[in-house]
Structures are given as C-alpha cells and as structure tokens.
Design a protein that fits this description.
Layout lengths: L7 H11 L11 E5 L2 E4 L4 E4 L2 H4 L8 H11 L13 H13 L7 E6 L2 H16 L3 E5 L8 H6 L17 E4 L10 H14 L6 E6 L2 E2 L5 E2 L4 H12 L2 E5 L24 E4 L10 E6 H4 L15 H14 L2 H23 L4 E7 L2 E6 L4 H14 L1 E2 L1 E3 L5 E4 L7 H19 L1
Parallel strand pairs: 3-15, 5-6, 5-7, 7-10, 10-11
Antiparallel strand pairs: 1-2, 2-3, 4-12, 8-9, 11-12, 13-14, 14-17, 16-17
Helix pairs in contact: 3-10, 4-10, 7-8, 12-13
This protein binds pyridoxal-5'-phosphate.
C-alpha cells in the first residue's frame, strides 16, 4: 500500500512525464479538502472558489455524502445496471423525478458518467422521440468534449481546433448577451432566420440551452428568453433540452436555474457535476414517453449510475432540496453580489458583474484572456482558487461551496481584491 506522498515538485515532474499534455492543469497539488477549503501537499490552505469546476455545491467531503459512500462501499461496488438492478440508481431517479422541472406528470431518468455523455443521450432521446435529426445550439454554449458535444460547443480553442470533422446536423443560433449588445429580440430573430436560411424547423429534434451559460461566461438568460424559446419550439414540435450541468443542483439558489424563469417547463433536463457530490454522475430526466422512446439497450453504459455515485447523489439531492439549504444559497448570492459590485466600483477594468443567485461572475471589459489569467495567478499566489471562463477567457467566475461560511467568503473576497489590484499594475 502506498503510504507516502510525493512532494509538490516531484509530483508535477511526474505529471509532466506521465500525463497527457492535452489535459490542462495548474500548479495546485492537492493533499486534502474540506468544505470550502483545499490544502496542498506543502500544507498551504486555499479558499476554494473553483469547487472542482462547480462540482462541490455541497462542499468538499459533505458529511452526508461521505457517510453514504462509506455505507455503500461496505455493501457492493460496481454491478452495472444492465446486469443487476440496485437501489441507489432507482432512488436517484426517483429523486430526480420528484425534483424535475420538466413538463409531464410521470418523470423518468437515465444515469451516465459525465455532462457530455448526458447531453449526447439527451440528443439521442430527442431524436428517437421525434424521428428528426437536427439539433440547435447557441453562441457561447458549452456542452462537452465528445464528438457530438464539442460540435455543439461554441469555442474553437481549445475545444474544437484540430478535432474535426464535426458531427452533422448541428446548427447554431445567437444567444442573448445583453452586456455585449445581443438582446432577447436579437436572439429570437436569429433563430427565426436560422429556420429560414439553414434548417427546416420540422427536421429539428431539439434545442439545447443553458439558462446560465457556464463556460461561456456565466451569461444568464434574460427573464423572457426561455419562455419565448419554448413557445417557438412548440410551434414546430421541437423539444427543449435544459442543460443544467453547471447551473443545477442548487447553484443558483433554486434546485434548477430554469425555476427562475416563471414556470418554463423543459422537455428534458440534463444534470451533472455537483449531482454526484464529488463522484462522477450525470443524468437526463424528462417525461416517461420521451425516456421510453428508446428501445431497451439503446441507452446505458458499463459504469453509468454506479452505486457509489448514486449513493452520493441521493445524499446530495436530499440535502439540497431542503428549503433551508436553498434559502442559505440564496442568501449567499444576496451577500456576494453587492460585495462583488463594490469590488467592481473600485476596479474600472471590470465591465459587468452578473449571474443568477449565487452563480456569479464578473467580465473584464477588455476582450483578452491575459488580464484574467493574471488575476487567477495572483489569486493562487495569495491562497485563493479561481477560474476564468468566457469565449474570450476574460470572465472570472465564482463557484464556492454553497455552504461556505461568512468568514471564508470574506477571506476569499479580500484575496480576490488583492489579486485584482496586483494584476492591474
Ligand atoms: C453546461 C455544461 N454542460 C456540459 C458540460 C460537460 O460536462 P462534463 O465535463 O462532465 O462532460 C459542462 C462542463 O463544464 C457544462 O458546464
């Protein structure tokens, strides 16, 4: 059994020697993590505003998740749901049904390993249910890195360059982005034009939209847009797939971000990231007739919905659905936004603070990644883990644990402000 840990430098050397350069990694070498903090192998403690890219809404090693995983480890590990049915998988689907924002009384789910895989499955389900081939996606979308989902993703470097040819029958429409001058009206007009110039809407199976675009820069959809999109879809029998891989599981102060949009009911919901509480799990949820449109064997996979991930997900969903959890997340957003706005007021390089509830970010006015990189780097030097995003890499997003304490939040924001000041020099 391995009992010693390699030093920081040695591990980074071995990482360079043995791990593909195609995976981008920073200098952080993790030793442990708890709640809203990560400790590195040299004992440096970081305030974590990255959460493993939005996978720690309930915080690192959330006690009910760790307990559920321990219980499951002592019963059985992998089975494959196609070989033997097990309770944690069914329980996760039951909870997803109870919490689903989708249209239809009877809800079902399929569980898979990653957000990309879930989006692939959502498209398969939509195609099977409608008998149509085409898919409509938006500017600034991120749906994953597999062949179909990278085709649906809207950023050339590093996600698409050199990886073509891409999947056919994927069409892109403008997305609302008020800060950069694209309104809901512009976006709706863009889709209408797409239906005139590029694709017959009667061949479109589904549109995919993130209510708050994640990698695209935390661009929250204007209040009217999802409803107008759904109305347009309904006119042509197109399904609306709500990609909540990043915005879901409490990140915006509601279970799903779409719940902020006045009763809009997606046809399919795609969940992932924080769903597994730190273990890989993603899902597609929707009304039974859609999820049952694919014959047995058409969906699935060896590890999809593995027992450990599902045991963790049950603990996550039961915790996040509690009104107190969501109320605390909403309060976090109400605390964080004015504080970010105050930071922005003394940093003219910040063009906009935006987001939904506690899913917040700021965009630098300059459309270049350099300043954002310098801020992330300066934050790291000071003990804060931050992530940039956006088509131009000029957005800094905040993804702290929703359970972060006021003290840790204050510490993180003070470090962020220092980092901004250093990077501005
Ligand atoms: C909205 C959205 N969809 C899909 C994905 C892909 O998820 P995964 O990396 O688990 O494949 C992501 C990942 O960042 C995402 O933010």
């Amino acid at each position: 059994m391995q009992t010693t840990q390699l030093s920081h430098d040695r591990l980074l050397e071995e990482r360079a020697r043995y791990v593909s350069g195609g995976v981008s990694t920073p200098r952080l070498v993790v030793a442990s993590a708890e709640g809203a903090r990560v400790t590195d192998v040299d004992g440096r403690v970081f305030v974590d505003f990255a959460g493993g890219i939005g996978c720690q809404n309930t915080g690192h090693r959330f006690t009910p998740v760790v307990a559920a995983i321990h219980r499951q480890v002592d019963q059985y590990l992998h089975q494959c749901f196609m070989v033997g049915v097990y309770e944690p998988y069914v329980d996760t689907c039951r909870l997803l049904a109870e919490l689903s924002p989708c249209a239809g009384a009877e809800q079902k789910s399929i569980l898979v390993n990653s957000g990309a895989e879930a989006n692939e499955n959502a498209v398969k389900i939509a195609r099977a249910a409608t008998g149509r081939p085409a898919v409509v996606v938006f500017d600034n979308a991120f749906h994953g890195r597999t062949l179909l989902t990278m085709t649906m993703t809207s950023k050339v470097h590093p996600y698409k360059a050199g990886f073509g040819p891409f999947a056919p029958e994927v069409y892109r429409a403008p997305a609302p982005y008020p800060y950069r001058g694209v309104s809901s009206d512009d976006a709706i007009a863009g889709i209408e034009k797409l239906f005139k110039s590029e694709v017959d809407p009667r061949t479109v199976a589904c549109v995919l939209l993130e209510p708050v675009q994640g990698e695209g820069g935390f661009v929250e959809m204007p209040p009217d847009f999802p409803a107008r999109l759904v109305e347009l879809c309904a006119r042509y029998g197109i399904l609306y797939v709500d990609d909540e891989v990043q915005s879901g599981v409490g990140r915006t102060g509601r279970m799903w971000a779409i719940e902020h949009y006045g009763g809009v009911e997606p046809d399919l919901l795609v969940s992932g990231k924080s769903l597994g509480g730190g273990l890989p799990l993603a899902g597609v949820t929707g009304r039974a007739e859609l999820l049952d449109a694919v014959p047995p064997g058409g969906l699935g996979g060896t590890f999809g919905g593995n027992p450990l991930s599902c045991a963790a997900a049950v603990a996550v969903l039961e915790a996040v659905r509690e009104p107190e959890f969501l109320a605390a997340a909403t309060r976090l957003g109400e605390t964080l936004r004015p504080r970010l706005e105050a930071v922005a007021a003394s940093h003219p390089e910040i063009g906009e603070v935006r987001g939904l509830g506690p899913m917040l970010a700021f965009e630098l006015a300059e459309r270049s990644p350099d300043r954002a990189k310098a801020i992330v780097e300066a934050a790291f030097e000071r003990g804060l883990l931050l992530l940039a995003c956006g088509l131009y890499g000029n957005v800094i997003r905040l993804l702290p644990a929703l359970t972060i304490s006021d003290e840790e939040l204050g510490e993180g924001l003070a470090l962020l402000e220092e980092a901004l000041t250093v990077a501005a020099r």
